[in-house]
Amino acid sequence: MKGYRNIRWILGCGLMVVLAWFLFVGDPWIDRASPAFARLAEQTLIIDPGHGGEDGGAVSVTGKAESQINLAIDCSLDHLMGFYGVPTVMTRTEDVSIHDPTAESLREKKVSDLKNRAALINGIENATLISIHQNASPVSSHRGFQVFYGEQGLSRPLAQAVQKTLTAVLEPEKERAPQAISASVYLMKHISCRAILVECGFLSNPEEDRLLQEPAYQRKLAMSLAASYLNTDSAQEEGAFV
Fold this sequence. Notes:
Largest sheet: 6 strands, mixed
Shape: globular
Mean pLDDT: 85
């Protein structure tokens, strides 16, 4: 019974990606003989659920740790990429920090965790990083997602693709542009691959907090990320995001 539910979930997610691709990006059928798909099969998508363990990140208005929501979204994205045969690596698969055993204080653990993530990412050739986070603000009315990118020429096209798809799927009435990430963000500053960071929403907003904890909404976010990633190379060839 459990196996049946898993198959049904994977098929449902696959259909959601195809639908999103068709509605918001273009031709939904993957040409596995195309140069664009061949490049995707040769690349590794690194999926990074931000924070973890003692470093829970932001805390929602209902007391949920950001790290747990990040992980749920990224597990969905990982399953979807597996459905399409895209190689993936997750920086963590549990709600844990990946710091060295010698780190003791919370600060030491955070620093060690980030260094280990950067080392993992830099050790993988032909990689793309998607790092998932949640936002928070003292102003509870603030809401919405935002995509940030690392090195502009390398990462901006993917950020534009993700921003476009998320807007179409989640908030078609609002127009936002992806932004260059601050140089103070350690992970982005210490890696060399194509990389984006997605703030999926505000945990300080009661309505968005509720949505971000719903499995269906988490799958919708993962679906949008998957559709954008799968189509980015061909979109770049056509000049759609340049």
